[in-house]
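COURSE: Structural Biology Practicum
ASSIGNMENT: Worksheet 4, Part C
STUDENT ID: 0417
INSTRUCTIONS: Below are two proteins. For each, the amino acid sequence is given first, followed by its structure token string. Answer the questions at the end about the second protein only.

PROTEIN I
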Amino acid sequence: MSPWAWSCRAVLFQRVPSQPGASQKWGRDAAVSIAGSIPRTPSLMEFTSGFYAYQHSFCPLQGALSDSSASQSLLELDGGVKILIDVGWDETFDVEKLKELGKLAPTLSLILLTHATVPHLAAYAHCCKHFPPFQRIPVYATRPVIDLGRTLTQDLYASTPLAATTISSSSLAEVSYASGYSQAASADNSFLLQPPTPEEITKYFSLIQPLKYSQPHQPLPSPFSPPLNGLTITAYNSGHTLGGTIWHIQHGLESIVYAVDWNQARENVFAGAAWLGGNHGGGGGTQVIEQLRKPTALVCSSRTPDAGLSRVKRDEQLMESVKLCIARGGTVLIPVDSSARVLELSYLLEHAWRKEVAKDNDVFKSAKLFLAGRTISSTMKNARSMLEWMDDNIVKEFEAFADESRRNNRRDEGNHQTGPGPFDFKYLRLLERKAQIEKILQQSEDAEPKAKVILASDLSLDWGFSKDILKSIAADARNLVILTEKPNFEPNHKPSIARTLWEWWKERRDGVATERTSSGDTFEQVYAGNRELEIANAERKALEGDELNVYQQWLATQRQLQATLQSGGTTTLEAPGDVLDDADTDTDTESEGSDTEQQGKALNIATTMAQASRKKVALKDEDLGVTILIKKENTYDFNVRGKKGRDRMFPVAMRRRRADEYGELIRPEDYLRAEEREDAENQESGQANANSQELEGLGKKRKWEDVGTAGRGRGGSGPNKRPHHNDRRRLSAGEADAAPFSENGPAGDDLSDLEDEEDETLNGPAKLVVTKETIPVRLRIAFVDFSGLHDKRSLTMLIPLIQPRKLVLVAGGKDETMALASDVKKLLTAHSTGSESAIEVLTPGVGTTVDASVDTNAWVLKLADPLVKGLKWQNVRGLGIVTVTGILLPGGEFQPVENGEAAKRQKLLEDGSTPSASETPSTAMVKTTGTNTSLTTNTASLPTLDLVPPNLASSLSVRSQAAQPLHVGELRLADLRRAMISSGHKAEFRGEGTLLIDDVVVVRKSTAQGGRIELESVGLPSDAMNGTAGGGNLLDAAMKMGGTFYAVKKKIYEGLAVVAGA
């Protein structure tokens, strides 16, 4: 045999056509991908042009090798599919960090959100409002992330004007210079952009598609995205937050797992991450679930707690710190977020108060417990409706509460008080207005202040109620601040208040108070030592005079720019897609310019706005470009010579048709009958009148008797109603414990009557004014880690079990990321057989793109016609599978000929004549010469797989008989259960990974042994039984048992493809 040919055996895969009538053509020019079947020898490297592998890259946009917790990542898959994971921000609200998102928006295929926290989705509403293509991109998240993220964003914009961001000084300078208001737009003035309203925030989050855990989903692409080609996303529980997600992304042969900010340990409210299965994935086995095992790339966060405590010790340390402070009459401030970790802390404190008050503990009975946040009532309302997303203990507690309620309802007496549910607060009072905060802080300044514990947003202490409370309690040495997470740090920005306090806690300069818990563990509280703390207060102030004129001129420029960039008379929302059609065509040619220049209309906004500003918004003909033909009257000619991009062709104002795979979308309101249309118009007019009446009542002070008619939502007490938390009657401490309570806290106070003064600058043009003040700090500082993140031990334990091909570490500081990467490399080297680990560890920085794909060992070759005729395909889950034995021939080097006709064939080829079609290649090989290259012009670039010659077939058959057959496919017990039930059998699950069929056959799937399937049966019939006539009950039972066994075995083999061993 020539050294240029190899005998090979491979398993080939093809995707079964999903559309009726579609077919797959196979023949001499058909391309086949063989995966992992041919060794990469030096001779085989002659065919590198036929090698193929999926390519995908990963680029962190924020949070990598940095102490900032903001998370933004870009994943680019094969074919140009771009996935943005998270739209995070930090407390600096620096709009410069979002510039890259503005450039990428017209190219994104979809967006995935992982957690309802500021570092993961705080910039989502800003991008939707100020980047028009953003609203057209499909976004996917779990239901808790959507609802809690909405309340978090509303709290963010209602609490600080910094979130609105400011207009760039360069943009204002151009407008002011052109308008003659140079002094009005100086660098000292920071004009605020219009923030999204609560209604707009609700609209933006309503566009997000909700997903459930462990359910694969094929997303829809954005209008300007390439085809997704079967992309599948699956959400798994990550712990850490309610609805937090570990994303599994499957694209072709590539499997990517994105796990940033997860927690393997179970907590009071949140179940553990889904790595090992169990409730929402949290808990249970010793092996990683199959869906998350052996991914092509694992993207994981490197941020871990400095000292990991168990849940019991952590909770005990927090409660002991609180107890010591309230025992001396102090106030405890615990900064928290308003949507995620606040659920864990509020549940812990509420249940601790219930337990201690039941023990008649005077310290806790005399202390007050508060939770402050602008939208905290909505957050808790959402939490009460999402108990199924929480840990099993929460579900059991709610079921016990529901059983008690049903028992009380069956009794004749109507005065039975049902105990509180998991998130029905009996002692924790919810506060949503600044006037309420001022009221409780004023009580602290009385002659005999009462102890209180206040949870307040935000974590950074730079905005929200937490900053106001800190300024009020900082001067009293009896008070205490408990930090629950390590604060962010931005090198180019001033550290936050929380970061400053955390640095003081680490320094321990002014002394430490060492305390001891009931279990004997020690913890420390650091004295602030009367240090001075500088606090910046950001306020909105309305624009006046020349400032207002500059702002109006800038706003007019923006509107003119939007009108100029629109194609035709479409609306602003639909304009981006229409303009992008021009950029999507012929982008691969050099004359179209660089990719950045052709990303769409959003990338040209800055340049066009600058031109419009200098010319006082009056755009000239050269600014309009080719659109002058449709924008200007009596203009019929445009010189396209030397032009690039969209200026090279005549503009056509086409409105994109909204259609899907079933055809063009229709509007049902266009097909209403006359009477139906009248009813719809009357309903709309009635709704408008109701809204106008409601608006007339807003802002007006109501009488006390009118409140009772408003229902329970405003604390009304009609007939047969219980008194609510806003009753005017003040209750004593003993009466409060026995009094009825509402979902939002204890009854009997007058805090609900307090209203904030309306701020008239919230809706109009405004500027940002920052004032600074210095306060003395004498309180104590403590730190108890409630971040709910995985520790280094969990990470080093799971990575060898996950077995990723590549590991990408993000979301952590530079030192801890590099240290973790070094430890992981040593660990993987110790587990590997060679001197080096097979897993590559990558640590990219912000803006650094890394190749996260792996070598799939796949080659493209051609099948000879005689070989194709003998293929027998087997279908498994939409894939066609066949085993092939053949001889591999390099393309353009050799041609197979028949044994008997070798000399004649060689002579014909040397003479330059072409053989007849009947002379098909079979076994021998003849080297092609320079005179017969035309014979293989179309097939010379790829190697060819042909039939095995007879002299090699005998040896290959002996070898294949000795090899064990392969079972290709994946058996899922849920699918087997449905198949057996549809066949008339009884099938039910008995424990994890165990299926019982007809009470006689047990099917087990062992994850510890790589998905091994085990069948056990009570009894089997013998061959004699099959031929025995009649028989008693024992024989019939045995026949039934054996029949079930063989039926199960048949169904299992029907779901797998059995191919000959290689």
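PROTEIN II
(use this one for the questions)
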Amino acid sequence: MTDKPGAGETTDAKGIPRRSSIIKDGSRAGRERKKTVSFSSSLSERKISSAADCISAMMEGTEFRKVRSNSRVYQRYYLLESGLQALRWEPSKKESDKARIAVPSIREVRTGRNTETFRTNGIYDQISEDCAFSIIYGETYEALDLVSNSAEVAKVWVTGLRYLILYGKHAIDMMASSEDSLRLAWLAETFSSMVVSAGQGGGEEVGISLQSAVGLIRSVNPGVRSEKVEHRFKELHRVKERTNGDRVTKEEFIEVFHDLCTRPEIYFLLVQFSSNKEYLDTKDLMRFLEVEQGMAQVTEDTSLELIQSHEPSEEGRCQGCLSLDGFTRYLTSLECHLFDPEHSQVCQDMSQPLSHYYINSSHNTYLIEDQFRGPTDITGYIRALKMGCRCVEVDVWDGPDDKPVVYTGHTLSSPVEFHCVLGVIGRFAFEASEFPLILCMENHCSPRQQRVMLQHLRRILGERLYTEPLREGEGYLPSPNALRGKILLKGQKLEEGCGGEEGDVTDEDEGAEMCQRMKVGNSGELLKELSDLVTLCKSVRFTDFQTSFSTQKPWELCSFNETLAVRCASESPGDFVNYNKRFVSRVYPSAMRIDSSNMNPQDLWKCGCQIVALNYQTPGLMMDLNIAWFRQNGNCGYVLRPAIMRQEVSYFSADTRDSVPGVSPQLLHVKVISGQNLPRPRGSGAKGDVVDPYVYVEIHGIPADCAERRTRTVMQNGDNPIFDESFEFQINLPELAMVRFVVLDDEFIGDEFIGQYTIPLECLQPGYRHVPLQSLMGEDLPYAMLFVHVALTNRRGGGKPYKRGLSVRKARRGREYTALRDLGIKAVDEVFKMAALPLKEATDLRENMQNSVAVFRELCGVSAVANLMQCVLALGSRVVGADGDPLMLFELREQYPSMEPQGPLPDVLRRVVSTYETMIQASRAVMELSDGVYDRILQIQTTAMAFHEMLHSIAVKEGLKGRKVTRAVESFSWNITILKGQADLLKRAMTEVKENMKQVHYAALTSNLSKGVTGEATHPRPSLDTIQERATAPARGSP
């Protein structure tokens, strides 16, 4: 062991404040550092993968920061005594026999900043959640709150202490017999099979060849490089002074396998759920799947199936046990990828009007390089259509020999014949998606060549062209479902009643813009037969929003230059959103982007713009966002827009930097645990194979949600860097948010890109997940991954984080209620005033319940991301009395499980019981009172909506003019949005209560804390079914 930080330890990095700055007493700063656990992958250093490793490290000792109340922090040196019966620390003003804690007196080891001392300490925000833990001991449940210099060291101590608590005096015997027999037996069998297959004499004593050993390890762990495996074997031979270095014995094979294929972060996770066993049995695995992975209806059969699929050892499969290697295989399998597989298929309602969807769109699809000199090629269409693109551009000009061609006019780009482009489109149009394809036709041809175009369109696309006549009076476009298998032409259309065969054409898109820049005329004549092919996507010029609201038809489509669109989004964000509720808008890049760079699609999606055309040939952040966004609905090219952007009467401003009315904000908790097999950046050669990675976690969405956080840099480790850092983001509009993980190589001059992965928030799977990294070009990086933990929770209002417990108790007095706005129209304002009381009652019901759950969670000593199942499971060890019997039990025969003391309780447990009762009362109130409150809100909303159609005329009669009328209409939409949103949140609160009670019921049974029921025995649940039926039944008066 050395003093040098290992690959997983905290290291200094310029620009990143060190958490050690919270140390108040620096008296030990100049003294020689004690040895600490190192997580470097060097062969000479320790790799933690067993309880024995943890306890050995604890006996060597570690420096911690001891946290006291009032911001006091002291540096202390802690170690486990050789008899394994006590831990002690120095320096201390106490006598030596009192500066110690007996292991038998320890009741619980709690991870994170989850004691009252941590929460009320003024430096809460400066303490890493992953480096903090608490030792709860004694009859009065005292707490020793400690902070380590790295998350790995904290895990070592937590794992070791829990092992000692569990096995007590028998810990030494258990360690001696707890060698990972499943792994050893499997590796021995694997090695023997290789000896037999090699057909070499001498058997296992002689071993196998070096190359065979390298191949064997890579067959199990393909992500590890051959050079590294070979180097490890040679280093081991050098340490053992072996002369025959081209042979590998079984012992050497097992040692190198253990070194290269053991991931400590997964070992720590395994023992957390296996009660410090070296494997997970079926019940352990069930608990992990339900508690952490969010799986429902998990049975032992589910666990057995998973074990049969992922456990490598035959012994483990027969015994129903998942070893560390099997657990690692499961966590790296597709089942544990971050992306929810439900979104791999079309999973959204596809029966709404076309204007209600975002549509995957390509700009100048025929180009494969820049806009000015790049070649034109049909492969651009093939690539875009295979990627799920549903709107492609065809820029058609007169060609030689009466053959129309496709290219960017007045540039040096090379042309391709129009019929070739149509042929490719006809072939690949519906390969990736069955939903309608829009062809943006920019027609610059003469009437003569337009006739050729018409012939090609009819011959090649035929019946797939949608040519049904327009239906006057239709308020919305047809749905994607109704248009499946159809190709829609977007282009100019002659006005009704235009005489003759031909008419003037006006091109409002890039062609006109380019011609204007080149000072070339762009007027021409449009063939009537070609005009008739355009039905649902007639191109019209945008003047202003008021003109569009009064004159534009649903089938008319405006194309916005990027500059104009951004200006509209900035100056009239609300009007832009309302415009896109009924009409389809298309935004294309500025003509100044001759390098084919891309605009940020999120800037336009937040305004509701359906078609944001990007240059598919240019990789980078913008294409990453676009590809990820359309992956959420089976990559079909259509994504349903957020409800607040579709409802006819709703209020949403695209530039909001606060919470969205009617939408409940969520907290996204992301813990970046580790990375695996991170490659050297492409083109980087200065550092050889050395990588110094760090990770950015970015949130993309509305302005209020955009944020980024970064981990520290892990020096010289791309194989398995340990980050162990947690971040929290508030998401105000979850439906429009995306999460992006970016891995960079820390360089002195300019950090270099390693890989990224972008995912819509709606597609995140909770729990422990692996994130497959992609290259700059969007290709998967072989075996390169991040290991993360993800959770989404409701936001809790009020107070700074370190005063949460206090702020919750005072929340009702200082609670902020969402206010309705006055319109200045007496009759309508009187209706909305009636909503003040039910809205207040709805907020109180919901927040009283959520705050009481949060206080109960804090007293249970679990993190903010924990659910009630985890809360009750955490209580399991704490409520055991001296005689081994529980001090309190849950009565599950009632509709709401009650917590009943079984005798006198210490103060800390009395507080737990009292807080639980408060939570049950708040939950009962939600279930019993919500229906009535919901009905009143809905009735007021219905009454107010009766004014909607005539609101403008009523405002004028009331004497409102100009801007005051506009404000009245906006305030009306705001109020309706609030009413609908609060009613929806109240229904969700009922569902939340149902789920909470279900979790308490299950956890009480699992923890043997149910009255009159032990173990996994089944218990009648009529009350729980009643709760479920009431919570899921439609509220009275609901539509």
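ANSWER KEY EXCERPT:
Q1: The CA atoms of residues 59 and 82 lie 7 Å apart.
Q2: The chain has a mean pLDDT of 84.
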